[in-house]
Design a protein that fits this description.
about 35% strand, about 130 residues, 5 helices, extended, alpha+beta, six-stranded antiparallel β-sheet, single chain
Length: about 130
């Protein structure tokens, strides 16, 4: 009876641990350009910059990599995304599937990357303002 209980406990433990690893995120730095999501997914009209009227029609923006893959950026404000339309950026964050929880956004400036946005710092400042 004790052996059966041990086996069942071990089996249940493994059953709950494996999905946790499957959904785990990976921290990475990815280079690409910010594009309209409907342009990337449905091949609609591409907004040229943040003053282009087509940018208003975009519901969301994604990071599109050179290999054609793309990632949604759910924790970035739309205003920040529109400022970066068609610009080369490096995003540091946690990747889960086709989304990146962004921690830092770097814009390409000549030979080096310039820190454009720091989500962790922004959240700390918002918390301090409460």
């Amino acid at each position: 009876m004790k052996k059966l209980t041990t086996i069942l406990t071990l089996g249940l433990s493994i059953m709950f641990i494996i999905p946790a690893f499957a959904w785990a995120s990976t921290h990475a730095r990815i280079t690409g350009t910010i594009q309209g999501a409907s342009y990337v997914i449905n091949h609609t009209v591409q907004p040229l910059n943040n003053t282009d009227p087509n940018a208003i029609l975009e519901r969301d923006f994604v990071l599109q990599c050179d290999d054609g893959s793309y990632y949604f950026l759910p924790n970035l404000d739309r205003t920040l995304k529109t400022q970066l339309i068609n610009q080369q950026v490096v995003i540091a964050g946690d990747i889960t599937g086709t989304q990146i929880i962004v921690h830092k956004v770097y814009k390409d400036k000549a030979d080096h990357n310039h820190l454009f946005y720091d989500w962790d710092k922004d959240m700390a400042e918002r918390y301090m303002m409460r």
